[in-house]
Amino acid sequence: MTFGNTKTEKTGTSTSGATETAHIKSVESLDQSNEMERGLKNRHVQFIAIGGTIGTGLFLGSGKSIALTGPSIIFVYIGVGLIMFLLMRAIGEMMYSDPSQHTFINFITRYLGRGWGKFAGWTYWIVLILTGMTEITAVSTYFVTFFGTFGIDLNSWKWLIELCFLVALTGINLIAVKVFGEAEFWFSMIKITLIVGLIVTAIVMLIIGFSYPATHIEGVDGTVSGATVSLTNITDGFQLAPNGWMNFFMSFQMVFFAYQLIEFVGVTVSETQNPREVLPKAVNELIMRILIFYVGALIAIMAIVPWRNFHENSDGSFGSPFIMVFKYAGLDWAAALVFFVVITAAASALNSLIYSAGRHLYQLASDSESPAMARLAEVSEHKVPAKAIVVSGCMILFSPIINAIPGISGAFVLFASAASAVVIFIYVLTMLAHHKYRQSSDFLPDGFVMPAWQVLDWIAIAFFVLVYVTLFLSADTIGSAIAGLIWLAAFGGYCLLHERFQNRDLKEALQR
Q1: Is 153 helix (H, G, I), strand (E, B) or coil?
Q2: pTM of structure
Q3: Which residues 6+ apart lie within 8 Å of 374 measured at CB?
Q4: If I label 25, which of 194, 247, 435, 478 is the partner at 20 to 30 A Cα–Cα?
Q5: Closest C-alpha among 198, 193, 188, 364 to residue 261
Q6: What is the Cα–Cα distance from 272 to 274, expressed in whole angstroms?
Q7: Are 59 and 338 in contact (CB under 8 A)?
């Protein structure tokens, strides 16, 4: 898809960022080159947005976050959540201006040039594939753990579990976009139910003054001390950085990565019914979701389990706070329940990754001049980019093969972790594209306008840069940070030089 359908009529009125502004064109007129079906309903998009903010990190990784910095982790989640909200407001404003675009990456191409657009498009697709590989491995691991709680050993069948999940989720994406939306709706419903159950359990325990003895918890070394459920477990001896300022700053990168994929709703707009009504609602409710599902869950966890009871295991892992809470509540099969929900969370992430990877590869193929790539720029009779989805799914299928080869497996772990770091570049480019959009004649003053953009865009960019800098402060992430910079210099430089030579050749051709 080109950007020819994004040009809008000019009015001659002036704004703070542009000398001319544009009229809002109807979705129908912008959709003339959009071959996708608008099959996603309001409830689908709302729950996709919710699902994008709730990953496996909340259920399994929040124990490490709490251990790093104690109750102040609440402020970290709120602070990082506000920055991600700014990112979503920027994406939302640009997508509102042209809801026919299949991905927010297109606006990087439009406002920063084809070089940066090519870099962002291919980088984001590769990130999606690598993340999909880690998610399919996570799905099989959680599946094995879930059945292990019932004494059933499925370790030798991990490859088959991965294959079955991948085939099933790819099939869901191939049927129709509304089937994908329905699947995400129920995946999100399961995650929401567990979080609401946790919060309700905490409220009941607080009201009755529940106490519990020292208990052995699955996934936690030794015995966890007993306590009385109380909000004083959060406030007593409160310090902003009880384990040192380094751990406090490191918690920002951990929380930031927990929010990744929050931008996924920006890929669904071209297939959403009434996008200009649904998109602002989905984005604006993001803050409420963060307060309920992250902050609410963390407060509930630390009211029940004193934060000092979270310790690193001998293997470097941390126990799941959700398992601990439900175990204290008398649910003996708490581990099985939580890992069932974690399986759905990982499957939901994989489902979304396949969807997003398919759309991005379709867009890359549409913009490519290669005949081979052009074959992927086709929409099936079900109005989905079937070939791009299948190719993306097949790439993810390499995961079990790579994991089986020890020499390659170690390198893959580095590449996968570096992929998470590279996403930061995409976020920075997105905010820069938004800044250029607000200064362009395409700006819609009557659209979904982000306030104080002159300041907030740069605050978000500064935060993303700061997060990347923190990657150099830990032995666990410095390799990812260096690999990310190498990718930026090598591939980014290639894309910019390629664009420059293309422009020069075009200029010479026109002069002849």
Answers
A1: coil
A2: 0.90
A3: 365, 368
A4: 435
A5: 188
A6: 6
A7: yes
